[in-house]
């Protein structure tokens, strides 16, 4: 996808200020290009735009397994902010919980551009967290240099599939959350898979088995049990529970389910 390439090369070439200016310019140009879609019955809770339709996902065949994503990229992307259905599920939840979240300080692991747009549009207080220099806080999610029970809200969407020790990451998020704190989590899941599949595969095998070369596993429905075992009280929020106009459907047929897990400590 063009945005992925922009992020990759900008981070290598530019300093932080130039990176964000380049990205801002890219989306300003994109909005002009896709202005014909603005104004309609569809709604993106990430950027807040009403649009006529969602557009196809421009996947890179050398990065994404086409057979798994074949139906996933149809009528999927917001033409303005590039949000995916799973990101709109999370944004719909954030909108509904605005009165609660606006009083909290939020730690957001590896936010997408659409996620950043949502947080800034709503005026929430948040910091990005990642291993890379462009995050507000450089943090290893498996070993956080953060005191116990010091964070009020954590957002972590499609991160754990990249993490070698994902259970350790969950335990760490539980540790740093305050009592009563919230973790909003999503992971890639096969719709009919009960147990999480994981093995020490090459990038080529990961691409074939899990859909992307940089995915170390694909999660099953047992992720809810794993979260519960780590101490959380877990409530799934499914895409079909969100307003239909936001395009937060469950799907596609063969890859992933658009679901987030709201986990309370």
UniProtKB/TrEMBL annotation:
GO terms for molecular function: S-adenosylmethionine-dependent methyltransferase activity. It comes from Parablautia intestinalis. GO terms for biological process: methylation. This is Class I SAM-dependent methyltransferase. Pfam families: Methyltransf_11. Residues 137-183 form the Methyltransferase type domain. Keywords: Methyltransferase, Transferase.
